[in-house]
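In keeping with the milestone schedule agreed at the kick-off meeting, the structural modelling team has produced records for the first pair of proteins. Each record is given below as a sequence line and a structure-token line. The laboratory manager (R.T.) confirmed that both were archived under the project's standard naming scheme.
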Amino acid sequence: MDKERLSQVFGGAWADLMRTPIHLDSLLARQTPRAKSILAQVIPPILMRPVSIAEALGVGVPEGEPWSLDPASLVNWPAARQMALELHAMLQGGSAPSVQASPEDYPPKMREMILKDWGKDIASQIFSELAQPAPLSLRLSRRVERKAFMDGWKKSGKIPVRMRDSQVSPLGVVLESYTPVLHTPEYDRGEFEIQDEGSQVMAIFTLWPELIAPLLRPSPQNSLGAPLPSLSDLQAPAWKIVDACAGAGGKSLALADLMKGQGRVFSYDISAPKLQALRRRATRAGLNNIQAIQVPEGRELESLRKFEKSADRVLVDAPCSGWGVLRRNPDIKWRQSAESLDRFPALQLRLLEAYSGLVAPGGTLVFGTCTFRKAETIDVIEQFISRHGDQFSKSHGGFVGPGSSDGFFMQSLMRKA
């Protein structure tokens, strides 16, 4: 692709990202194979590290940009186009810029909140970890033996990148970079799903919080070093599980598989298309213990009243700012307003309260988010306990990642008998 054509293709894609809510993956999926290949190389680094990439490439960026620009100006930000052209030229030549991640790569409000929550040292680690490309993580089915799976792929030569055991999830395999794993017989047989290690951990935590507790940290940071729990000797429980904000069902699938098809996973969400995707994925995985149910937004209590105090486990993986997954979704930080951030804690508390009524006496309520803002993690739990401490008590909880995995917070709450 010549320079002029690349400038046009990048300009159109960048404009769509800046003026619409389209997700980066969806944007790339719309492109021709050639354009997708190039844009997938140049757009994510610019989104993740705009200031430090510009400095490394020698592209002049006025102080304060891009964060000082309004949305209309970001659509036509000339530095972005210049960075794309320079970066593509370097990659074509077989080299890449040497980039030192900087706090300036994050919006001022985000920097301010992270520093206030966690202090300079932890904030510096967070800024660095979220600037690193994310690996491709797979969750293996419990019916698959991890060593045999990896040995089979290595011997066949089907996967052209290095792979290793996850250091965070006993179900996980990590590939060092993207490779088309979905077009394999193993995927068709339901032997694995693409799922971040931290998300896998949250699913295990929902069933057995005490097993995951040693991996959790009181602040967001790498979770390496703690011994991984073994799942091999665990008896599959025939429990009633509720996944309150299931989406397309990554954790629902993991929960159903962890129970080896026993019990029942009730997957609730407001999105019919996401639930339909979950049903397709469950069929491919051979899991018939998932029931996907659409719940109208704001009418949770009305819809769920008949299931009151009947679930052994309830997972509320609530909508959040998504800061823990910025390395996979760097476009998030370009779009969030202070107003949208302010809305999350109230929504999370409302969902936690609505679904807490489903927990049976002696059962466990799990709250999770893929962020590390105190307002959306620790503070939500404290508010919930202040209102419902007569019914629930805190058990295990903390953070995993970012670094070894994406960044997640999880907290278990036991319902008093």
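The second protein of the pair:
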Amino acid sequence: MPKRTYQPKTRRKAKTHGFMKRMQTAGGKKVLARRKAKGRKKIAISVRKTK
């Protein structure tokens, strides 16, 4: 059986879809505003640091 194509990386995901990336564009700011207005618990992806 072949290897699965999606090998997720938390850091890469955050760099692409994270809060800082969203804040860089006008559209991204609108995304965050919409999610805040809806009352989302998480408005953007964040990297959790594990000990």
